[in-house]
Structure to design on (105 residues):
């Protein structure tokens, strides 16, 4: 996913975009939701400490429903959890569903 986000950002942000109306990279924000205290959160934080992320990255968790606030403020999302698909629907957030993260969809 990191590679896909980087490709998107470089394609649609200035100065690398071909569009004369492209916004600068600092106007794009990637929001990543993790389950607080989980093995997944630990892995994500460790991975991000060792690998570069293009653009601004904000990590939210399930404490105080931060992930719902982030979804409500987003333009588009990728989800892999059925519960999050329902929440995205309720918040009118268009999403792509990732069925099997190991299959590189």
């Amino acid at each position: 996913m990191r590679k896909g986000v980087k490709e998107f950002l470089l394609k649609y942000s200035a100065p690398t975009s071909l569009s004369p109306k492209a916004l600068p990279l600092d106007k794009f924000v990637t929001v990543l939701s993790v389950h607080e205290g989980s093995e997944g959160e630990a892995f994500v934080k460790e991975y991000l400490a060792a690998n570069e992320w293009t653009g601004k990255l904000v990590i939210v968790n399930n404490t105080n429903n931060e992930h719902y606030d982030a979804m409500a403020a987003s333009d588009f999302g990728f989800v892999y959890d059925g519960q999050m698909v329902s929440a995205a629907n309720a918040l009118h957030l268009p999403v792509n569903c990732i069925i099997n993260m190991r299959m590189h969809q």
